[in-house]
Specification:
By secondary structure, the chain is α+β, with helices and mostly antiparallel strands. It is 36% helix and 21% strand. The protein contains 15 helices and 16 strands. The longest helix has 19 residues, at 16-34. The two termini are 45 Å apart. Bound molecules: adenosine-5'-triphosphate and magnesium ion (MG).
């Protein structure tokens, strides 16, 4: 029954997985709020153009990974592979240019057709932040600081290193492109077929290749950092100084070029070795050309996205779910009263478990199974006397409590 399996590379998230997922989202958004971010939810699908025009037609995402289809009305639609393009599209179509600076936080599923493995799904989830309208390096510092702050708050920062690079401005990039093409052309036959093609269309991306042959061939390649013009060097220095002033440590990684075409100046990744090959948990950079390339008013931008699944795997043991109170009718005649009591307590804000039938023994077993903190026992005598037997399931201590004093008596469990 293969059709009843989830599609390869997709997963059902439930219970504890879902709680980890929500914890990542909620913590990230809470911290982002402190930095003035508001939430945005763009559609899960967009016109294909939104991605092809922004991600560049040589990026892995566009060449291999997009889920694209034609609708009945003949429109070309793509399930979003990442969040930035949609936010930029919303910025343009919403006419928000007069309102900059704008800070957007988002969360949600992304779709990429790549080879599933640990930490790599075809439907995965991201949290992300985008800051639009600030050209100066203080924006880069703040956006990276936000990311570091979230990782700290999630208690995953310990295994994670911030890697930093500069992709320079357009002038630097053109200059570097020339020397890189010269270097790579001399080694052309040692490059993978894919990189040979990239050499023509987007040589910088050869540096990003994971192919071992490519890695060997690019050994000793000229460094971008030696070809940054003064403006780019100053910008990069200001970012580094700003981070240092905030006590955020980083390492420079000249090989960090990021897969997408739209980046300039700052590129960064937060990387761990605790997840095997899929070590990048959060990645981002500055994309000053993006909004204009999409046809909007020239607007600088910087942002990042993090994989929720990868972050979830790094989380320490999370706090257990709230322990319920178990309402336990001793016999069938007390069941109606038990239902009313459960309702009253739930309305008052308590977490209440009520089994569905079975004798007292079976119900006590269930109370243990759901890790109830207290059993509220209703037998014939309790109902007659308008009281409840309250048994602490950890200590075994028991007390008889008047029905109308119960909510107060249990206040500690709210
Ligand atoms: P990778 O090099 O791992 O393919 P990427 O450069 O394609 O990553 P980005 O596009 O920068 O990744 O996405 C940001 C983050 O989203 C990644 O650092 C990762 O945590 C997460 N991510 C990306 N692709 C996947 C995926 N297929 N499954 C799970 N998480 C993913
Ligand atoms: Mg990828």
């Amino acid at each position: 029954m293969s059709s009843l399996q989830p599609v390869r590379g997709t997963h059902d998230l439930m219970f504890d997985d879902m709680r980890r997922h929500r914890l990542v989202e909620a913590t990230a958004f809470e911290v982002a709020s402190r930095y003035g971010y508001g939430e945005i939810a763009t559609p899960v699908f967009e016109f294909t153009e939104v991605f092809t025009r922004t991600l560049g037609d040589t990026s892995d995402i566009v060449t291999k990974e997009m889920y694209t289809f034609e609708t009945k009305g003949g429109e070309r639609i793509t399930l979003r592979p990442e969040g930035t393009a949609g936010v930029a599209r919303a910025f343009i179509s919403g006419g928000l240019a007069q309102q900059v600076p704008l800070k957007f936080f988002y969360r949600g599923p992304m779709f990429r057709h790549e080879r599933p493995q640990k930490g790599r799904q075809r439907q995965f989830h991201q949290i992300g932040a985008e800051l639009l309208g600030v050209p100066g390096p203080q924006a880069d510092v703040e956006v990276i600081a936000l990311a570091a702050h979230i990782l700290k708050e999630l208690k995953v920062a310990g295994t994670i290193t911030l890697q930093l690079n500069s992709l320079g401005d357009a002038e630097s990039r053109a200059a570097y492109r020339d020397v890189l093409v010269k270097f790579l052309s001399a080694r052309r036959d040692k490059l993978s077929a894919e990189s040979q093609e990239r050499l023509e269309r987007n040589p910088l991306r050869v540096l990003d290749s994971k192919d071992p042959a490519d890695k060997a061939a690019i050994e000793g390649a000229p460094k971008y950092s030696d070809h940054l013009n003064q403006t780019s060097q100053d910008f990069f220095k200001a970012v580094q100084d700003g981070l240092s002033a905030l006590g955020i440590s980083f390492v420079l990684n000249p090989a960090l070029v990021r897969g997408l075409d739209y980046y300039s100046h700052t590129a960064f990744e937060f990387v761990t070795d605790a997840l095997g090959a899929q070590g990048t948990v959060l990645a981002g950079g500055r994309y000053d050309g993006l909004v204009k390339d999409m046809g909007g008013p020239p607007t600088p931008g910087i942002g990042w996205a993090a994989g929720i699944e990868r972050l979830s795997m790094l989380l320490p043991e999370i706090a257990p779910a709230k322990r319920p109170l178990a309402v336990i009718p001793v016999g069938a005649t007390e069941e109606k009263v038990a239902e009313l009591l459960a309702n009253e307590l739930r309305q008052a804000g308590f977490t209440v478990d009520l089994g569905y039938g079975g004798n007292m023994g079976k119900r006590m077993k269930r109370a243990n199974k759901v890790a109830a903190v207290v059993a509220l026992i209703l037998g014939e005598d309790e109902v007659k006397g308008n009281v409840v037997t309250v048994r602490d399931l950890d200590s075994g201590n028991q007390a008889t409590v008047a029905r109308d004093a119960l909510v107060n008596h249990l206040a500690a469990y709210l």
